[in-house]
Amino acid sequence: MADAARAHLIHIETDRRLGHEWDEWDGRPLANGGDFSAPPGLFFRYAALTICVAFAALATLLYLLTPRLALVHAALPAALAWTIAAGFAVAILWFVILLLSFYGGVPLVPEGLLERGPYLRLMNLSSLVARAFRRRDWVEHAAIDVYNALAERRRRRVGKGELLVLIPRCLSKQALDGVLSIAGRYDVPVFVATRGQLARRVIRERRPRAVVAVACERDMMTGLRDVAGRLPVLGLTMQLPNGPCRDALLDLDVMDRWVRALVGA
Ligand code: SF4
Fold first, then answer.
1. pTM of the complete model
2. What is the DSSP-derived secondary structure letter of residue 259?
3. Which segments of the chain belong to CATH 3.40.50.2300?
4. Is the CB of 95 under 6 A from ligand 1?
5. Does the beta carbon of 139 sit less than 6 angstroms from any atom of ligand 1?
6. 140 lines ligand 1 (CB under 6 A)
7. Fold classified for 156-263
8. Which residue is closest in CA terms to ligand 1's atom 7?
9. What are the distances in angstroms from CA 197 to CA 86, 203, 204, 224?
């Protein structure tokens, strides 16, 4: 009996092939059955904290270096202090624009200044702060939801051959069948991107004008950071009821809506 249990465990571990984002997973079931859904407000709270922490760190650094900077030029510490204060004011103004764009339903600035610009950096920095509070996956989920909401409001349209659907290797059979049926319905190509590097290669070779990508929150964060600045991407996160990197589920209705809207069917 013990041998059978061990054989079963060994089978699970070799078959699963964890993505490096999950290296530290201890094998226990994920919280809430691997569903990290969270309201946008959670991301906004962490994002505000992240901006404050970042500027507080800069101010502290300046305080510590002031005696040495004053030796270089007497006015240098004050000039840098004003620069940090101005940067903080700009960051707060931008954050208010982000909040108004999200809750007001209309993006107030071009995408390069919002979800495909500074937002991508803020998302990743907020994820680092959230890790300190063990809220990483929830904050990332909320951040990706906010990103998608802003990106959807741009109402982008592309030709069928110009859209690419990228899926991970960990989808359940049910989810995979659903994705293939949506792709078949709208006649768009699907690629399995087993790692970020491969996803980038497929994008380089196929040269799509938009991408619908599926991944867990952790993988999606790096994917959006690397690609979304250059190419419009919508990122669909998954539920992981059997732990990371295996039998993942996704919301096929959302994928159908996104693909239909992008190809204008
Ligand atoms: S997308 Fe799937 S295979 Fe890739 S790291 Fe996330 S759970 Fe693992």
1. 0.91
2. H
3. 156-263
4. no
5. no
6. no
7. Rossmann fold (3.40.50)
8. 245
9. 38, 10, 11, 13
